[in-house]
Amino acid sequence: MKVLLLLTLLPLLLTPQTDCDCPATFAWVKKTFEENDAGFAYAIDRKGQQAYDAMTEKTRTAIDTISEANGCTQAIYEWLTWFRPGHVSISQVQQQNTQRDAPPATDEEIRSRYADWKRIEVPVDEFEASLDSDHPYEGVWVTGDYRLGIKKMDDRYVGAILSADSLYWIPGQIKLEFDLDTMLTYYMQDHSARYVHAPTPVGNNYLVADWVTLQRETPRGEDDPTLDLYLRASETEVPLFERIDDQTVYLRIPSFDQHKKVEIDSVIAAHRAEILRTETLILDIHSGTGGSDQSFAELLPILYTNLIYTTNTEFYSTPANNQRMLDFANDPTAYGIDAETKAWALRGYDTLSQHLGEFVNLDGGRQDTTTFDTVYPYPARVAILIDGGNGSTDEEFLLAAKQSQKVKLLGSRPLGCWIFPTCILCSRRAVITSWATPSPVACGFRILLSTGWVFSRTSLSTGRYLSGGGSITYGRCGKSRAGVITRHPALKTPPHAPPPPPHHGAER
Known about the structure:
By secondary structure, the protein is α+β, with helices and mostly antiparallel strands.
């Protein structure tokens, strides 16, 4: 039995601390990672102990001067990415109140909490008047409920609040900042940082940076109507289905998160008959989040043409890693698992506990095979849109899907973290002495690490694919990803780019 339950990292709202013991937090992260991560020894063998020691000492030196939680998060995240590009992360966790019945924060308490947030140094009206509306990045932009002014200051672009809720965000405070060569830092409602690719102008009136979309307040000319589907597909957090023409349907799945399974299955069920009578399916999973193999289960019968081989996982056995099996069994409803999987988890825990410090295959062999009773004539061609943001379960799906004779992968090389696929969260929480007076000790953090690995790393090459009389252009604009459903007879395959740290659900 092959069961892979991947926990999606969902940062909770943070109650910010002004005092943060970053060196102590880094010491905890380092110890936890070295003792429990399935890929730690692999990275050391590949890169060398000397390189690891030098990188770690550089990080220690950097964090000695950091006393603020967001800066500590970024410094430790950069240390984690030395090991691999994905399946590592760090986020700040919500401080736990000892008084469960403590009242929610008042508006004044919320405003006070963020009153000292960094801001522009000139009055807001003066700042807005100085913006160049003809500049591709400067000007007044809208995203959600926020109205921002973006202006280049020194070597970076700064996006400051012009108007917002005046609760979590006050005019003049800096909501985002970026440079064109690296990435954009976007501050969420709770002012915690998320990192995405630098933005790309799309059409005349949009800036797009992965899941961050900014619309110019005053349009600067009309946009191509074909941008509409791309923009909606980039912004949606739920599956999206549309018919492109008589021969082509389009299905956007932004996430294989386990909690999205019901939504995914519902959309597939509602449009299954239409998909199975249409020649070409465009399946768009670019910039995915990973998740659970259960979430893509209903797609495989549609793509299937022949036996599907999948590589089983070996679990690295430590007390902390093995606890995840008990977590599954103790709360099956929360993890969406059935009685059979619960029994598997309990058996797995017993087996793993007998082999501490070893890699253990719980499925009895290196490979599993999947077959279905029917090979459907349609869709006869399936184009799967991918990019450097696809990792984890996304790659597991691609490894299965690409074995179908119907399937071509379009876009750029995915993230490449499926070699260490199975993840857990480890938490370190700040100490709260009472509701009113939090103790100024170490920052509250949790890290994402891998508990298992697979034997082989199958190539996920991409290629060119044309669909009937029309096709797709899914290309790179400037230094960031962008894609448009078009009627052009050619496909541009963008180069690979290093992915940003993952974003996860939180109030923006």
